[in-house]
Amino acid sequence: MSHHLLPTPIALRREADLTTLVENRTVYSLNAFELNIFETHQQAARVPLSMGALVLTTMLRGKKVMHLPGREAFDYLPGESVIVGEQQTMVIDFPEADAENPTQCLAVAIPADTIRGTIDMLNERYPRVEAHTPWQLDDETYAHLHNTPELTGTLERIIRVSQEDTAAKDVLAGFTLQELLVRLMQTQARKLIFDNYAQHLTAHRFAHVVQFIRRNLAEPLPVDKLSEMACMSKATFFRLFKREFGLTPVEYIIQERLKEAKRLLRQPLSTVAEVCYRTGFNNPAYFQKLFRKHEGLTPGLYKKQQTALG
Known about the structure:
With 310 residues, the chain is α+β, with helices and mostly antiparallel strands. The protein has helices spanning 112-125, 149-163, 169-196, 205-215, 223-229, 234-245, 249-265, 272-278, 284-295, 299-309, and strands at residues 24-29, 34-40, 44-49, 54-61, 64-67, 74-76, 80-84, 90-94, 103-110, 144-146. It has a 6-stranded antiparallel sheet. A 4-stranded antiparallel sheet has the order 3-8-5-6, with no helix packed on it. It is globular and about 60 Å long. The model has no long low-confidence stretch (mean pLDDT 94). Keywords: DNA-binding, Transcription, Transcription regulation. This is AraC family transcriptional regulator. GO terms for molecular function: DNA-binding transcription factor activity; sequence-specific DNA binding. It holds the Pfam family AraC_N.
């Protein structure tokens, strides 16, 4: 798990302050949303939870098993988020929770009219690149998400503004919630196109670009060439790519190159220099610096750790 995908930990409640050991709830109510922090300090199974609004939940500590209507049960771990629809009841197992290893989870309950208002505003002013895929929040197909650094940053701000005591708190909360909705939809758009581009080659201009990037990581990938593939000017391509996915084409290329570099570093016979060139970085010092910035350690150390684990 990359270190930048988890919000800063929130202090756990003292045992004496808990009203229950299963899903003890701390609530921060604002005009724009309600933030709940749930903690569980003992094993439990089949605990139902329904919030009466669309909810974004994010795991901070421990492990849950989630049961949602019409879906296979799945493990829910820190660094992940789940969107639960307005009418859905979550049923939750806590297979490992105890006093030493409690679970902690955020749940942001978002009123339906706020969601509708934000989505209408986005579709009107900032339409997505393909008219047949307008902005919308999918609480079924793409509801279990791996957090992006951008989504995590916004969640941190949601926590901070909820706990603040300022006159402008509700105004700030409104803006932060809009940002959260945008980040969520961008994260879903990434999952749709970055993870399943092959299914969208005929219907989505960026699917082609993503496929080309993934197949040519070792080659130079100039933005002029990518924008030509999408039939856009360079400036429009840059702007719409960032709007759709929440990161620039260059950031996406770096992300994919680093992902491939990690895969290659796990191979016993690879060397750091060879991996640098095979993933298109072509400058070992730059590769070292970027890898360290994103992963928190050097490629050499990462390789050592993986070999020790292997």
